[in-house]
Amino acid sequence: MPLRVAGALILVGIVILVTNPSWGLIPSFLLIVIGLVFGIMTLLGKGAAPRGSGMGPTKACPGCRSRNPMGAAACRHCGYRYAQP
Are the CB atoms for 82 and 74 separated by under 8 Å? Predict the structure, then answer.
């Protein structure tokens, strides 16, 4: 999907440049550059959101159903105390 957005920006920039070369030079140039940068960033994976929360393994709280780290002694949302092994 992000590559389609980049392609659309480039295409719109080219159409503006072809249809109105005098007034559309700067906007078309900006759209083409933004499309190229967006496409390259997407291909490199720099624009992608990180997967997961980086929290590691979690367990569900029986009190409020929120996710907490496996080693948690209590739920950070509702205060439910987990049984100690």
Answer: yes
Residue 28 burial by Cβ neighbours in a 10 Å radius (0-12, 13-18, 19+): buried
Q: Is the pTM of this model over 0.85?
A: no
Instruction: Please tell me the total count of domains within the chain.
Output: 2
Per-residue pLDDT of the chain (85 residues; tens, 9 = 90+): 778 888 899 999 999 889 988 888 888 999 999 999 988 888 888 655 566 556 688 899 998 999 999 888 999 899 999 987 6
Full residue range of the structural domain in which residue 80 is found: 52-85
Considering the domain architecture, whether residues 33 and 66 belong to the same structural domain is answered as: no
